[in-house]
Amino acid sequence: MDNKKLYIIIGVACVIIAVLGAVSFGAITAYTSYNDTNIKLDVPKGTEFQINPTNASLNYISTNPKLNISVASIDPNNSYANETYSKFKGDILNKLSKKKMNNSDHNYNGTVYNMSNINNNNTVYSIVLFGDSSYSIIVLSSENLNTVIKMGETFELMKPYIIKLPEVSNQKKFS
């Protein structure tokens, strides 16, 4: 066997080893499309969600892999929907400002937040999306940075999950 064939065999073996290593360490994950009446996005293959609707949000929870999606939309028919949405959005962005990752830490157009808790050694990355026209706030979370980025790049809100806010009257009643 001449040296050229030997180098080709060694090169192919190195590529195979690199790909297998990347797969085993989670660098390459196969994704599949997940969609229902409310959301559409790409998630790791094999993801199964438990869906938990509450008065405050619609939550999608997966334990293997660990993913969380929360969707909430303020009823646009509410007289103070715009004011409430703007306040929620501002409060969320203000609270998350310290958790914002440097853009060089990831390859994503939007903002990724490192929500890791040093006390319990739990790493969680989140992307918060705002749907200004539907008054929607969506939080995507994963322990894997590449997964949360893929979710953020492919997320579509198909139908807002409306939370009801009580109407408040500004008029005083006189007896």
Kindly list the characteristics that best describe this protein.
175 residues, 29% strand, seven-stranded mixed beta sheet, 27% helix, alpha+beta, 10 strands, three-stranded antiparallel beta sheet, single chain
Please characterize this protein's 3D structure:
With 175 residues, this protein is an alpha+beta fold. Helices cover 27% and strands 29% of the residues. The chain has three helices and ten strands; from the N terminus they run αβββββαβββαββ. The chain has helices at residues 3-24, 81-96, 145-154, and strands at 31-35, 39-44, 50-53, 58-63, 66-74, 113-114, 125-131, 136-142, 156-157, 162-163. The strands form two sheets. Strands 3, 4, 5, 6, 7, 8 and 10 form a seven-stranded mixed β-sheet that branches. The chain has a three-stranded antiparallel β-sheet with strand order 1-2-9. A hairpin with a 3-residue loop joins strand 1 and strand 2. The radius of gyration is 22 Å and the shape is elongated. The N and C termini lie far apart (104 Å). The model is unreliable at 171-175 (pLDDT under 50).
